[in-house]
Amino acid sequence: MSDPLKVGIAGFGIVGKRRRDIIDARDDINVVAVCDKTLVGSGAFDDGLRFYNTYTELLKEPLDILFVALSNDVAARVTIEGLKLGLHVFCEKPPGRNIADITAVVECHQDRPEQRLKYGFNHRYHNSVQDALGVLTSGKLGEVINLRGVYGKSQLITFDQTSWRTDRALAGGGVLLDQGIHMVDLLRLFGGDFTDVKSFVSNRVWGHDVEDNAYALMQTKDGVVAMLHSSASQWRHRFMLEIGMTKGAITLSGILSGSKSYGEETLTITQRGENDMGDPHEETMRYNSDSSWSLEVAEFADAILNGGEIANGSSLDALKTMELVYKIYCADPAWRKMWGLHQ
Questions:
Q1: Cα separation, 211 vs 230, whole angstroms
Q2: What is the pTM of this model?
Q3: Of 223, 83, 202, which Cα lies nearest the Cα of 147?
Q4: Is the C-alpha dihedral spanning 188, 191, 193, 195 positive or negative?
Q5: Is 133 exposed, middle or buried (0-12, 13-18, 19+ CB in 10 A)?
Q6: Is the pLDDT of residue 343 over 70?
Q7: What pLDDT, in 10s, does the model give residues 255-267?
Q8: CB atoms within 10 A of CB 126
Q9: I need a surface site. Which of 31, 83, 167, 265 has the fewest CB within 10 A?
Q10: Residue-by-residue DSSP string for 242-271
Q11: Using the 8-state DSSP alphabet, how is residue 211 labeled?
């Protein structure tokens, strides 16, 4: 058996450490070095893992794969540097601060098609989402009519996150770009590409120079309508996605996370009856474990080692999702003018 591919992780916070645990549970890829600005100097941990203070030092290591878990202002730059060094790269969401960031990455990657590039839109790998997608594609509930999505938390900064998320120059946006982008990605997954967008974007709750609430009403060319509320003033953390269909409905509620604050992860399938009088047959499934992180890394590793495809989180996916995020920002004339935004 050949030696495992060498992985470096740029950004060794909560997410970076979780990625390391998932990677090191495999025998075909292995984390050999990490970097984080909170680490002092360079050296090695007790388990032999090498560490550095800067990503430039990390990139001097003989790596095969780079995982990027850095702040939005440098994520695209480090992804590009990794690609230019011939590495396969996995970058956490969002792919940057704006469309220009991800466009620069896509252009760099186009010249290196043999290298794999993947973005961490982790929610697609949750078992409830995968099962919901299976129901939708089976056709037994007909066609999608509309979608309603709510994803909210109690503050802009939660779970010991760092304050750069409230600084527009570093983050590029607030709750919509940081957390709501997961729901935007799922709306695209289940509903298609939205071309007509109306929105209200606001920072009236916390007063930072990034949004704490975004409300959007969107429509595809085929007439599928989606409503989105991304919130940093949802005092009880909430994840909910309803998919209305011609023969029933799919409801995703709650999502398993490290914080355990979004409630039980459930999937409810509603089947419309001929004479159910508004009380149709429903079946609810509850999920007790989260394998999404392992499945996500497994797809990336398979693409590198066996020539598999990046089915979710490709650079094109990331670009299209970022474009929709910016359509939501720019659809509010006051918000667009305030921050000089351009699609």
A1: 10
A2: 0.96
A3: 223
A4: negative
A5: middle
A6: no
A7: 998 888 999 999 9
A8: 24
A9: 167
A10: EEEETTEEEEEE----TT--S--EEEEEEE
A11: -
Residue with tokens 């709501």: 180
Residue 61 class from Cβ within 10 Å (0-12 exposed, 13-18 middle, 19+ buried)? middle
Give the helix, strand, coil percentages of the chain, each rounded to 5.
35, 25, 40
| Cβ neighbours of residue 96 closer than 8 Å, sequence gap 6 or more | 72, 75, 76, 102, 105, 172, 322
The helix/strand/coil state of 199 is strand
Strands of the sheet with 248-253, listed across from one edge: 194-202, 213-220, 225-231, 144-152, 238-245, 248-253, 265-271, 281-287
List strands edge to edge, sheet with 43-44: 43-44, 50-52, 29-35, 5-10, 65-68, 88-92, 117-120
Residue 159's identity, in one-letter code, is: F
Instruction: Please state, in angstroms and as integers, the Cα–Cα distance from residue 18 to each residue in 70, 153, 201, following that order.
Output: 14, 21, 32
The token duo for 240 is: 């909910």
